[in-house]
């Protein structure tokens, strides 16, 4: 029986990162990687872009940046790693420290001995139990593995696909909706929550995103459940929700993924309530000689102190390195935890988030304050200046930033969210951020960085320099009392802007801010004033002036017209 | 005599930021802003882009993002601030707390009383004492003020300008070189230091930038001083350096700026050795009722604990807000200091830096280590993936990052440098950065962020997993001994890459990494091996393998071929 220092089950990013790092730390280690599939080190995150044609060649997703295909030979030549493809590990025996692997082609079984074992068996697509849903249908797919994307791509090439119906608007659902829409396919997207990316972003960003997707032409149905699929001749032809029936040429199930843990379970390793392999801070399972990494585990959330399931390549890579360090260096590196940073491009819109959402902060009983504002990622006079809407969540007890979300067409949300993540993860105090020395030049940013602007706004809000009100709150006010006789909605934009983008509320009056200070406003002095402008900046200035004129009840519509959805 | 709560001298970004913030904090404050010029709140950073035609209208540089021209009326209507333009403050009398202002048109003098005074008199272009240099010449300009850019723009429009000669390759010199080159004008650029941006970036980045500018078509002459200008009929026709004569249709002097401090000096305020107004951490001058802000002061560098002169809009804005807070809130907010972050776009190249340069770290006697590497800002399979070269400087005693510089064509250096700045300014420990939860999705970044990769490389270097050598060091070795019989330069790229971009050193041998492990290398085993590849990644892997084969003296050429200059 062949003996190895380390056996890795699963040749995805986490498993192969572990293997490569092991060899770099000690080239004498004998390493075996076993995988049931054909495509090791496959960049699954690139699949939506391959479907769209932005990635030209399927192999590109398996290549290094210098053009080498990461196949069996590559790992042998590059790092003397043994890679068994198309072998299914059917059993782990922790007592004898062996694994049993089945050759998929020959059906022969082989036994290998390990000193340390790393389980990186990844995840599989969830197929929800919906009446009529048949994963065997020729035109119904999940999108998780290389073979999924191969099947979808050939179906698209060999059939006339003019319409697709997608179930689920999480990260993958939205990405693939965007890719197929950009490929001139009609897209219907169903989501049971009230907005896309609902577990990641809050209502104002989510409904804003929904509006942009809808306006761009994606038929997005939220708060709506598909209750039945109809098939004919091994082809799905129709999805039926509570409200409508949608015919389509192709159907995609993007309902998330769940960890592959069968062999771990069989080996008696501890499994969490959510069904993932339980690990400690060194990524050891309940058996100290067995580590687990990647999509088959949960990781610690630094902000909630609970584990969460985050099957993402960025964690897989980071944790793979850590596992290797811990195997060679005797568990010297604990995993700190993550804060749930995520980013996605949907059509031309960039959306990102980090830290806690408002919902998560509520669930944790944190005493928090939010600011929501809009601005430009670069000076307005530059041609590449893009509008960006940002929501920040602060802990009122510490004034620390605990969450950030942003969205903008072509906007540099990645920069904003990465700086925010660095701030949140390291608990950088609020007043230190006000003085952060971020880079400025017109092709890149504003003289006051758009994220730092949010910290200034929070400072102003905290010091009662203005009171904020959300679009949602105003909508609710109107829904309760359509006349709203005691409320004045004051639009301080220019007449021209007022005409171009009217308020969605009736009865808004327009007094451009230039005339405001010298206007006779006595007739509305005792009313509740809700001021709005394009982004929230002029309305803030207006509220300062009205306060000075003795107005008592003044609210700023946060993010102004830019926040409308 | 008219009395004001606060008088601000200078209507640039710092002065008007102060004034606006003062009014927001307390709208009852009577504020007077006096400026000798015509264009308040002018976005001077946009001037190079206006010259290039990217900013269409001169007025755009004076407008708000919502299109209002920030003139005298704007500040009156928007914030009830009094603005006196074309008035020169000739005297400050700290005893009577008055300023004397001269109306430029009528020559009348006016006296105003202040409770607090803010000096934001800005800076002026330095005109070096060079033989024959006549700032009166019709075609020789500095580029500092709105009137400068107006003059240059009309000269360009009214004359056939096919060539320009620029003195100085600091931020402005490089930006305007880029703008005019992009406008199809031949550019010669002279620099007394050995590379452009020499006070900001180190040699490897600087010479790389120089090569890119040169290859793009800018005639850049470094380490070369212009000793004489030749004029004819009020026009400069020639610049003469130690090595050459350059004729041009237009000449620009970009030799930096110096603070405007004459009236401060006359008023007896303390002036620094470098000639700026001395302030404390609250931005008070030596007279506690007089504050100073913007380009006329120096600011504290957090990393050196010394002041430095950083005449940049981003500091002006931040400090203007701080001064206002301190005036209204009784000096409650100290200025922490800055770390010297800067960014610039030159042609299609983005260059940024933050923290200490290697030179600065040496001057401070810090025990430091550098890593220099190359990579892509996004996965290679994405069409918008751009190469980026990064230099990081770590304090070896703490392992903390203390400096970062990067350059890349169209690359997202702004994101990298902003995260680096956040790390440096807040002394985030090295091991915390290894676990930073930065955003990842293929349109934005790599699964391991390019900056975090540098922290991994530093960890490897610190743990002696490889020894680095710089392009410069190899060049010096060859200069000393052209034969280098005991050295092997081992290129582990593919044969194809080897042919496409040959080594600048003779005798490099090519063994693609795929064949390396199984090659017979006994014949070079006792030599010093310098391994290189495209970016430094494969050479690292190769060095691990050679070490395993018993090689003793192995060096990796940091950043590989991507670092050649």
Automatic annotation (TrEMBL), chains A, B:
One Gene Ontology term of the molecular function aspect: oxidoreductase activity
Keyword Cell inner membrane belongs to the record: no
InterPro entries found in the cross-reference section: FAD-bd_OxRdtase (IPR050260), FAD/NAD-bd_sf (IPR036188), FAD/NAD-binding_dom (IPR023753), FAD/NAD-linked_Rdtase_dimer_sf (IPR016156), Pyr_nucl-diS_OxRdtase_dimer (IPR004099), Rhodanese-like_dom (IPR001763), Rhodanese-like_dom_sf (IPR036873)
Keywords per UniProt: FAD, Flavoprotein
Stated name of the protein: NADPH-dependent 2,4-dienoyl-CoA reductase, sulfur reductase
Natural source organism: Thermodesulfobium acidiphilum
Entries under SUPFAM superfamilies matching the protein: FAD/NAD(P)-binding domain, FAD/NAD-linked reductases, dimerisation (C-terminal) domain, Rhodanese/Cell cycle control phosphatase
PROSITE patterns, A to Z: RHODANESE_3
Boundaries of every Rhodanese domain copy: 483-565
């Amino acid at each position: 029986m062949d003996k190895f220092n380390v056996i890795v089950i699963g040749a995805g990013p986490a498993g192969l990162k572990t293997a490569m790092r092991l060899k770099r730390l000690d080239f004498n280690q004998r390493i075996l990687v076993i995988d049931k599939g054909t495509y090791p080190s496959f960049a699954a995150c690139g699949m939506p872009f391959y479907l769209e044609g932005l990635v030209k060649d399927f192999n590109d997703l398996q290549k290094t940046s210098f053009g080498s295909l990461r196949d069996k030979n590559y790992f042998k030549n590059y790092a003397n790693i043994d890679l068994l493809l198309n072998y299914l590990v059917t059993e782990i025996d922790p007592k004898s420290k062996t694994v049993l692997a089945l050759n998929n082609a020959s059906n022969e079984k082989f036994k290998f001995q390990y000193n340390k074992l790393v389980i990186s068996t990844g995840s599989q697509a969830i197929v929800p139990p919906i009446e009529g849903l048949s994963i065997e249908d020729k035109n119904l797919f999940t999108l998780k593995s290389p073979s999924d994307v191969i099947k979808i791509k050939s179906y698209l090439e060999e059939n006339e696909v003019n319409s697709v119906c997608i179930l689920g608007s999480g990260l993958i659902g939205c990405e693939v909706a965007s890719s197929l829409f950009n490929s001139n396919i009609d897209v219907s997207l169903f989501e049971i929550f009230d907005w896309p990316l609902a577990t990641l972003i809050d209502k104002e960003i989510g409904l804003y995103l929904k509006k942009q997707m809808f306006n761009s032409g994606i038929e997005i149905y939220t708060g709506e459940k598909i209750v039945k699929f109809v098939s004919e001749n091994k082809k799905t032809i129709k999805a039926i929700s509570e409200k409508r029936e949608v015919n389509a040429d192709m159907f995609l199930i993007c309902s998330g993924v769940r960890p592959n843990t069968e062999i771990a379970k069989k080996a008696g390793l501890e499994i969490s309530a959510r069904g993932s392999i339980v690990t400690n801070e060194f990524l050891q399972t309940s058996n100290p000689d067995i580590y687990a990494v990647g999509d088959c585990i949960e990781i610690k959330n630094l902000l909630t102190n609970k584990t969460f399931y985050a099957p993402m390549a960025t964690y897989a890579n980071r944790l793979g390195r850590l596992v290797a360090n811990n195997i060679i260096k005797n568990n010297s590196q604990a995993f700190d935890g993550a804060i749930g940073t995520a980013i996605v491009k949907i059509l031309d819109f960039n959306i990102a988030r980090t830290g806690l959402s408002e919902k998560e902060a509520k669930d944790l009983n944190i005493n928090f304050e939010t600011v929501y504002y809009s601005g430009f990622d670069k000076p307005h006079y530059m041609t590449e200046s893009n509008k960006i809407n940002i929501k920040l969540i602060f802990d009122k007890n510490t004034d620390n930033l605990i969450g950030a979300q942003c969205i903008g067409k072509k906007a540099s949300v990645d920069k904003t969210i990465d700086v925010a993540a660095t701030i949140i993860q390291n608990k950088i105090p609020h007043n230190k951020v006000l003085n952060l020395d971020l880079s400025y030049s017109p092709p890149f940013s504003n003289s006051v960085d758009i994220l730092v602007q949010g910290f200034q706004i929070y400072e102003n809000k905290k010091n009662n320099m203005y009171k904020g009100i959300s679009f949602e709150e105003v909508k609710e006010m109107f829904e309760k009392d359509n006349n709203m006789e005691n409320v004045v909605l004051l639009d301080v934009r220019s007449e021209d802007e007022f005409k171009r983008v009217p308020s969605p509320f009736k009865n808004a009056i327009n007094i451009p801010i230039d005339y405001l200070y010298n206007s006779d406003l006595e007739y509305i002095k005792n009313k509740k004033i809700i001021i709005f402008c394009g982004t929230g900046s002029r309305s803030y200035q207006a509220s300062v002036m009205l306060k000075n004129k003795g107005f008592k009840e003044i609210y700023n519509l946060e993010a102004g017209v830019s926040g409308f959805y």
